[in-house]
């Protein structure tokens, strides 16, 4: 996909900072319990997590179920804000932005791939990708051509007219990756993207993700080792804390 190196927003004062900076981040959830939905005990999903991700890097996040991987990815993708500490994306403190400002930041900078593909069943692969471009204000013709370009990147040009129900699990996930990439984000967040797929199909998905990392930052959560092999660095979470970091 073509990049826009001269893009004015990429030339901001923050351009030398890491794409993602996460410092001493904490995220607690308050559970409501009982008939009257009283505030229950606090769950500390993340506790003192710090990390940086640079352009061109794949950061793997591993840890057992419940260790805080999804919570962390939501913060790194500006879908959520920390209860303490700071997350900066391209130099912007996500908690200092309004909800609207965060949505804009996500639109401009973040592509997200979920474990369950979240495709719209009634739409073709091409339209599933093209809808991701509506908010950015592209013309219909441009949405279509960008969607086709993104599908080509993941090797699905020949399936553009097919609905999700006519595609295999791996093909659906590739559509979801194309959808995340179509707006040309600097950051790609993938939360257990191979969790629903067999090993061989998962390998292909990871190849597709690794191929886009070259000039972006990719953060990839996984509960198995398969994804870890592709990462440049791997951060291990345990009970919301960083248990260790290894070079991939
Ligand atoms: P993982 O993705 O590694 O399985 P999560 O980030 O989903 O872990 O969850 C971390 C912890 O936070 C778990 O104890 C989970 O039950 C809790 N948690 C996650 N989301 C919520 C929520 N919306 N409300 C309350 N607790 C939550
Ligand atoms: Mg999770």
From TrEMBL:
It comes from the Archaea. GO terms for cellular component: membrane protein complex; plasma membrane. InterPro entries: AAA+_ATPase (IPR003593), ABC_transporter-like_ATP-bd (IPR003439), ABC_transporter-like_CS (IPR017871), ABC_transpr_LolD-like (IPR015854), MacB-like_ATP-bd (IPR017911), P-loop_NTPase (IPR027417). This is ABC transporter ATP-binding protein. One of its GO terms (molecular function) is ATP binding. Keywords: ATP-binding, Nucleotide-binding, Transport. Residues 20-248 form the ABC transporter domain. It comes from Halococcoides cellulosivorans.
